[in-house]
Design brief:
Blueprint: H1 2-26, E1 39-41, E2 48-53, E3 56-61, E4 64-65, E5 70-71, E6 76-79, E7 82-91, E8 94-103, E9 105-109, E10 112-117, E11 122-125, E12 128-138, E13 145-155, E14 157-160, E15 163-166, E16 170-173, E17 176-182, E18 187-193, E19 195-197, E20 200-202, E21 207-210, E22 216-221, E23 256-260
Antiparallel strand pairs: 1-2, 2-3, 4-5, 6-7, 7-8, 9-10, 11-12, 12-13, 14-15, 16-17, 17-18, 19-20, 21-22, 22-23
Length: 261
Amino acid sequence: MVSIVMRYVFLSCVLFHVIAYVTAASVKANCGNHTHGDNWNHDTLTCLTYRCRDGTIYPKYTGCVKNDKCYDVDQKWQKDCSKFQCVSYKKGNMTFFETKLDMQCTVERTGKKSTCKPNGAKWKDNCDYKRCDVTTSQGYKAGNMQYSAQVINVKQGCKVGRKCYYDGDQWFKKCVWYTCKVTPLYTKAVSVPGCTHKKKCYKVGSSDRTKTSMAVTNTCVNRPIKQLDGQSSQVPVTIRESAGRVSPPGERTLPVWRRHV
């Protein structure tokens, strides 16, 4: 009789623990003010809803979110020179939404409205040839791409009046020889004046032999330019050298005629 009672008590305890375990397992955790299984909308984004599952909040998107605004699938929009489109794709049983970006270069024009140029576009601006370059790089987060668009100078030139000259080009005007020089820092026309003698222009290094009772040769020479502070100057000055005259220290003296008898 005692053994029957003990067996009954043991089975009752086991059944009690099983019922308690099943009951505890069936009770799901809440998500703050929301209970398990609840669905609710985002406060401002119409394409975003949430669902509570055993204490965890799971977001669910039905479109793309960009700058705190929802966009439908296949919807296109533009901001400045950047074009966007909302696309979706499946991965397993999951649907993902992505904002595709077509970034372009913004070209500023003096006194005119700016224009947009696509990646790889080439155009001429005065004497300069330009190109739009759009580059991408991996951001600090996985899948987060960084975009940048910039206008680069493919070829730069010197504009003189209505004409364009490019690196190494030379031209002559009013007894001055010009050369277009292009560097990464600047683009400018470098001028080298010549010597004017008897209404004729002579380039530095050239000579003029006159027919007199004695052979006389006049040569246009280029002297170093120095300022009073000892620094070199790039602006040439043309003077005429008198016989026996010696230039004082610091005076700029180029180019000049030198007589050879």
